[in-house]
Amino acid sequence: MKAVTLKRHLTESFKSLKRNGWMSVAAVSAVTVTLLLVGVLLSILMNINKVAHDIENDVQVRVVIDRGTTKEQKAQLKSELSKISGVKKVTYSSRQNELDNVIGVYGKDFQLFQGDQNPLYDVYVVDTTSPEKTVSVAKKAKTLKYVYDAKYGGASAKKLFKIVASIQRWGFVISLLLLFVAVFLISNTIRITILSRENEIAIMRLVGATNSYIRWPFILEGAWTGLLGAILPILLVDIAYYWAYGVLTSALASTNYHLLTPATFLWQIDLLLAVIGIVIGALGSGLSMRRFLKI
Question: 27-49: per-residue pLDDT in tens?
């Protein structure tokens, strides 16, 4: 395509957006609502995957110590835990420390369980050399003396992965439906604008204009519609995620799980929303032009 022709197509697409006024606003609004929902879904799904990955790679076993265990017995238990194959490090966490973690996560209401009212247990946090070792280490730890229970992240991971898989499937289906609705709305909106220019298209055909020469301004108009419709969702998703990240990061501070940092993935979602907007806009325009270009 020559530069002069491309410039003309771009100029015509801008003029068409301005000329159609409220019709263009309606098409942009349809894209905005659709991409906002898609952006929110993507942010949630990506963070669910991140937390699931953290749980899968949780290489810690929490060994709960029996009440009444003396210091000497705890030292003996620590020695026996350290000898288990696959154990990298054993760290002691007292009942008070466990309660402080709970208070940090769930709030000051739990401060009433201070002192003798504390229902929690002393714990040995056992770091393993790999996620695969957590199951065998937990099973071995349960057989040791002075151990009340042994828990590991993999137990909750299996349930979480089923939930994540279900959310991913439904999220994918909903995203496709939203994109289909956007293409449908855009194509119908642009089809209405094309109807008002049907005579113009017929005249261009009569003077020998090719289908591609006629089609390109409308495709570019749809692409601009999609891009304009993506701007507001990009801003809203970014602002909302920065706020949610600040709130939830403090709540997850005492755990081994973390949300995706905004700088690592928001630009990817922004770029994806812009591309999706441009593609569905151009696609909607292209589909609406087919009947008018038939010989």
Answer: 788 788 888 888 888 888 888 87
Residue 282 pLDDT grade (very low, low, confident, very high; cuts 50, 70, 90): confident
- Residue 227 and residue 218 in contact, taking contact as beta carbons nearer than 8 Å: no
Closest CA to 238 of 35, 31, 50, 49: 35
For the chain, give me the number of helices (H) and strands (E)?
A: 9, 4
Measured in whole angstroms, the distance separating CA 200 from the mean position of its chain's CA atoms is: 45
Q: Which residues have CB under 8 Å from 165's CB, separation 6+?
A: none
What is the rounded distance in angstroms from the CA atom of residue 32 to the CA atom of residue 25? 10
Q: Give the 3-state secondary structure of residue 209.
A: coil
**Is the full-model pTM beyond 0.70?**
no
What domains appear along the chain, each with residue ranges and CATH number?
3-55+158-293 (no CATH), 58-153 (3.30.70.3040)
pLDDT tens digits for 211-260?
A: 777 777 778 877 888 888 889 999 999 999 999 888 887 666 656 667 88
| Residue 73 burial (10 A CB sphere; 0-12, 13-18, 19+) | middle
